[in-house]
Structure prediction request, 198 residues.
Amino acid sequence: MANEIQYRHTTTGADTIYAVVRKAVTNQYWDTTGSPAFETLVPASWTDYDIAMSETPASGYTYTGAFPAGITAGRYNVDIYLRAGGSPAITDTLLATGVMDWDGAAEILPSTIDATADAILVDTNELQAQFDDVDSTGTEVITAAKAMEICLAILGGNATFNTNTRVWTIYGRDGSTSLWTVTESNTVNGTRTASTKV
Prediction:
């Protein structure tokens, strides 16, 4: 990993800039020493949290640093500080704060999100194609959308059952347009013997 953290500074050459990474949800700080991990802030250990940044290229005003490789996927705050003394201090001037959406190996860019959304859309379309036709009896086919409409009509109370003819009639949202009729046999279990879709 390299250069995921970037900051455009106002001067060149003279200043020492560093970054600190925080968990957005728990506000824990990434300890870069020993076995790196997030921990609750210990002000006396501020020097354990700094991530070095260098001006790249020289005299280019832009400072870059590597987002820590050990951090798992998630959303993180990245704070940029101007070091005042010989080592980082909690009293150093905060220059900027940004957000890093991290997939565990790289920054999640808008182009990555777009590509993922496109892939989901393709998968959804393929799934719809597979379920476009629902064979409800082995002899007839209705679309998944029609099946959903029928379910919603029944749940919405837009269905009637004639006990004499054993016919269910399912109506649309207007309560009068017939979506589907179903004839049941006169049995205890109400086994369906025929249906007509509209």
The helical segments are 110-130, 144-155.
